[in-house]
C-alpha cells in the first residue's frame, strides 16, 4: 500500500452583544474577535480552523488591528492560525475577547495576551499546551518505555492535567469537557503504544499484559456528542477506525486480495458501512475523498458510494468538487501548467519549456518521509532511461522558508533531473489544479502536453518501467 504525507490540515477573541427581551438577558449567537498583532511579517488574516477546514477568516489592517463578528452554532474548540503559529482556543457564544501579540520574538507565546469574557478558557488552553509540549519531548525514549513504566508515566501525566483543570477556575461545562478529554488523551497513548513501541524497539511482535488496555474496551467509538466537542476523542476514533481497516485489509490479503490502494479502499468501505450516519461518518468519508482520483478503477462508482453515505452539505460539496476536478484529469486532457518556477540550477522553468518529450513529474518535499524513500528508485529509473525521449522533473512543495533545506537535500542526495521549487507550497495553482492531497504524487505528461496519468506509478513500482517501455 502506498504511503503519502497528507497535507498534511489561531487564536480568537470575542465580544458579545447583549439582547434584552421581556427584561430578560439573552445570550448572543455570536462572538467578536478583536485585537492587534505587531511585527514585520504581519499576516493578511487570522484563520480559525476546525480540523483542516477554515471556519473563519479575520482580516488585519495595515497596522495589525483586527475586529470581526463570528457567528457560531455551538461552543467549540478551534485552532487559531497566525502565520506558522497554531493556538488552541475554545469559543462560546457571547465571549468577549481581545488579543495582542508580537510576531517578532522567537517565543511568540511569551508575548501573547488575551483578556475579556471567555479569556480564562484560552489562557488555560495555553497553559495546558505549554505543559503538554514539555512532556514526552523525546518520543522515541517515551515509547521505548516498558509497559509498566509507560502506563505509570501517562497516568501521572493525566493526573497533572486533571489537577490543572481543577485549579484553573473554569466554567463547569468547559471543565467537564477538558477532564473527559484528558482521559481520551490517556487512552490514545495506550492505543498507540503497541505500534510505536514495536517500531522504535525494532520488534516484529509485542506481548502485553492482558489488561494493558482494558480501559479502552469501555469506550464508545461512535459517540457523536463527544466527537463534536472533544478533539482528543476524535483522534482516538480515527485511530480506532484505522486499526479496524488494517485488520480487514490484512484478512483480505490473506484471502488472495492484491495489495494496493484498491484493496485498502475495499477494506475501508467495509468498516465505514458499520458506522451510523452523522458528523463522525461524514468526516471519515471526507478523509477518503483522497482515494477519488483519476487512477481509481471506477471513479463514478466510488463517487456515488461516498455521496450516499453523507449527511452534511459541506461533505457533499467536497466530494462534488473533487469529482469535478478529476474529470478534467483523465488521460488525453491538457495538463495543468506552471510558469516561472525557481530552478535549482539557476533561472526559472515553465512546464511549456519541456514540450516535445514525455515529462515524468515527482511532486515531493524535504519533510516527507515516503518522498525521500523514493529518491534512490527515481535515480535508478533516471539512469536507465536517460537516453529516452523523457524529462524527469521534481517539483518541491517546500515552503519559502525551507528553500535552503531544499537546496541542501538536492546536493547531499545528488538528485538528478530537473529540480524546481513550486511558487506557493501546497497551495500552488499547479498542485491544486491536479487535486493533489498527499505526496509523493507522480504525474506523466506526453510530448504534446496532455495527461498520460495524473497518478502515475511511483519509481519503486515495477509497473512504471512497464509503462515507460510501452511508450518510449
Automatic annotation (TrEMBL):
Residues 329-472 form the Thioredoxin domain. InterPro entries: Redoxin, Thioredoxin-like_sf, Thioredoxin_domain, Thioredoxin_ResA/DsbE_sf. Coiled coil: none annotated. GO terms for molecular function: isomerase activity; oxidoreductase activity. It is found in: Cell envelope. CDD domains: TlpA_like_family. The keyword Glycosyltransferase does not apply. It comes from the Bacteria. Its main location: other. Residues 1-21 form the signal peptide. GO terms for cellular component: cell envelope. Keywords: Cytochrome c-type biogenesis, Disulfide bond, Isomerase, Redox-active center, Signal. PROSITE patterns: THIOREDOXIN_2. GO terms for biological process: cytochrome complex assembly. This is Thiol-disulfide isomerase or thioredoxin.
Amino acid at each position: 500500500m502506498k504511503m503519502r504525507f497528507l497535507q498534511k490540515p489561531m487564536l480568537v477573541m470575542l465580544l458579545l452583544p447583549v439582547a434584552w427581551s421581556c427584561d430578560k438577558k439573552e445570550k448572543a449567537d455570536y462572538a467578536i474577535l478583536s485585537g492587534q498583532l505587531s511585527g514585520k511579517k504581519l499576516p493578511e488574516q487570522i484563520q480559525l480552523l476546525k480540523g483542516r477546514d477554515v471556519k473563519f477568516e479575520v482580516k488585519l489592517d495595515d497596522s495589525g488591528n483586527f475586529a470581526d463578528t463570528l457567528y457560531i452554532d455551538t461552543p467549540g474548540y478551534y485552532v487559531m492560525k497566525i502565520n506558522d503559529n497554531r493556538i488552541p482556543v475554545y469559543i462560546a457564544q457571547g465571549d468577549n475577547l481581545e488579543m495582542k501579540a508580537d510576531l517578532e520574538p522567537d517565543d511568540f507565546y511569551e508575548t501573547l495576551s488575551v483578556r475579556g469574557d471567555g479569556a480564562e478558557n484560552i489562557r488555560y488552553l495555553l497553559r495546558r499546551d505549554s505543559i503538554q509540549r514539555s512532556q514526552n519531548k523525546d518520543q522515541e525514549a517515551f515509547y521505548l518505555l516498558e509497559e509498566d513504566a509507560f502506563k505509570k508515566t501517562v497516568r501521572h501525566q493525566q493526573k497533572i492535567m486533571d489537577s490543572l483543570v481543577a485549579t484553573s477556575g473554569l466554567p463547569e461545562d468547559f471543565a467537564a469537557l477538558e477532564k473527559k478529554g484528558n482521559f481520551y488523551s490517556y487512552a490514545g497513548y495506550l492505543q498507540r503504544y503497541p505500534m510505536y513501541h514495536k517500531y522504535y524497539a525494532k520488534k516484529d511482535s509485542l506481548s502485553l499484559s492482558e489488561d494493558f488496555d482494558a480501559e479502552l474496551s469501555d469506550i464508545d467509538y461512535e459517540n457523536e456528542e463527544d466527537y463534536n466537542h472533544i478533539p482528543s476523542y476524535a483522534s482516538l476514533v480515527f485511530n480506532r477506525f484505522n486499526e479496524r481497516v488494517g485488520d480487514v485489509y490484512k484478512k483480505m490479503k490473506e484471502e488472495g486480495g492484491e495489495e494496493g490502494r484498491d484493496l485498502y479502499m475495499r477494506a475501508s468501505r467495509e468498516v465505514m458501512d458499520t458506522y451510523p450516519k452523522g458528523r463522525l461518518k461524514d468526516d471519515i468519508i471526507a478523509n477518503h475523498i483522497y482515494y477519488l482520483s483519476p487512477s481509481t478503477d471506477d471513479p463514478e462508482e466510488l463517487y456515488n458510494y461516498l455521496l450516499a453515505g453523507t449527511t452534511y452539505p459541506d461533505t457533499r460539496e467536497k466530494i462534488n468538487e473533487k469529482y469535478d476536478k478529476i474529470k478534467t484529469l483523465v488521460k488525453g486532457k491538457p495538463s495543468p501548467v506552471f510558469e516561472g518556477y525557481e530552478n535549482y540550477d539557476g533561472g526559472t522553468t515553465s512546464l511549456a519549456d519541456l514540450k516535445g518529450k514525455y515529462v515524468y513529474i515527482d511532486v515531493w518535499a524535504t519533510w516527507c518521509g515516503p518522498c525521500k524513500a523514493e529518491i534512490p528508485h527515481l535515480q535508478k529509473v533516471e539512469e536507465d532511461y536517460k537516453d529516452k525521449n523523457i524529462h524527469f522533473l521534481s517539483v518541491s512543495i517546500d515552503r519559502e522558508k525551507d528553500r535552503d533545506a531544499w537546496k541542501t537535500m538536492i546536493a547531499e542526495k545528488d538528485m538528478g533531473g530537473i529540480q524546481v521549487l513550486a511558487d506557493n507550497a501546497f497551495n500552488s495553482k499547479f498542485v491544486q489544479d491536479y487535486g493533489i492531497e498527499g505526496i509523493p504524487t507522480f504525474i506523466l505528461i506526453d510530448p504534446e502536453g496532455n495527461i498520460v496519468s495524473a497518478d502515475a506509478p511511483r519509481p519503486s513500482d515495477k509497473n512504471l518501467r512497464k509503462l515507460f517501455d510501452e511508450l518510449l
